[in-house]
Amino acid sequence: MEVSKNPVTFRWLGVGGVELSAGGQVLVVDPFFTRSPFSALWGRRVTPNRSLVADRLPRADFVLVTHAHYDHLMDVPEVLRNHGAVAYGSPNTCRILAAEGIPAGQIHEIGAGAQLELGAFKIEAGRGVHGPTPLDVIINRPLAARLEPPLRLWDYRMDTCLSFFIQVNGLRVQCGGQLNPADVLLINPNKAPEHYRPLLQAVQPRLVIPIHWDDFFSPLTCPLRPMLAPPRRAWPPISIIDLAQFKRTIEEMSPPATVLLPEIFQTYDLTSPANKFAG
After folding, report:
1. CA 67 – CA 57 distance, rounded (Å)
2. How far is Cα 77 from Cα 99, in angstroms, rounded to an integer?
3. Hey, is 50 helix, strand or coil?
């Protein structure tokens, strides 16, 4: 697909957070900035860091939520309050937003197959895939009968996971693991190498951007560090996500693709030639 000369800019917001801007409009996916410490998992009620949310995301018109875990949804209510934006997500996502006092007009329930036209952005929601975690028995079950903010981290529970295929100004962006041909592919870099080959063959991206690789228990005042990778072999039992190895793997499997290892909060023009991001 021929890409328009009208710029589409991208910012990685940390964790799974993505910002796309085009024509004066801003679409964000899973904005999350309030990085609670690991100890908060054991039941302490938590509140978003309002000043941090406002500082790191000065504008948002539309918010897409892939799933209702706290590291994707916790700060969304503040984003909606700050900007009057409209959010789109699963039933659990919508119920949590309602419990947080967000007006019904700013909440839209969607599922896989939904098609949206949001200003300059055309979106198709697909089925996403969420990898296993040690806390699945707690965070992947029905919501509590009563949700009373401030919520605990384990109150954010996933019912379904979505991916998003976004088209804007002729640019195709795939957020998640659907098999749509796209110019830009945003994926989690914690999979085994054999996972990526069929994905790259189907999507044929010119630019691949890894997201959701950083340790979200560490606050933004500290340097970013990769999180633990899921165990895939007996030894070593755990390992750290290796972004350099991910870059080598993708570019060897799909030589036309360039891998961009984005700096957090830095703005990139996705309509520029992919080789601009090489190095």
Report:
1. 20
2. 10
3. helix
| CATH code of 62's domain | 3.60.15.10
Number of domains in the chain: 1
Using CA atoms, how far apart are residues 91 and 88, in angstroms rounded to an integer?
10
Cα→Cα distances 116→20, 31, 68, 179, Å: 16, 19, 20, 19
1 occurs within a structural domain: no
Determine the Cα–Cα distance for residues 207 and 184; give it in Å rounded to an integer: 5
In this structure, is residue 3 part of a structural domain? Answer: no
How does pLDDT run along the chain (279 residues), one tens digit per residue?
A: 455 568 999 999 999 999 999 999 999 999 999 999 988 888 889 999 999 999 999 999 999 999 999 999 999 999 999 999 999 999 999 999 999 999 999 999 999 999 999 999 999 999 988 777 766 767 788 999 999 999 999 999 999 999 999 999 999 999 987 788 999 999 999 888 888 999 999 999 999 999 999 999 999 999 999 998 765 554 555 679 999 999 999 999 999 999 999 999 999 999 987 666 654
What does the CA dihedral 45, 50, 51, 52 come to, rounded to 10 degrees? 70
Rounded to 5°, angle at Cα 15 from 62 and 139: 90
Structural domain harbouring 83: 9-277
Tell me whether residue 21 is in a domain: yes
DSSP symbols for 15-36: TTEEEEEETTEEEEES------
pTM: 0.94
Residue 209: phi and psi, rounded to 5, are -125, 115
240 in a structural domain: yes
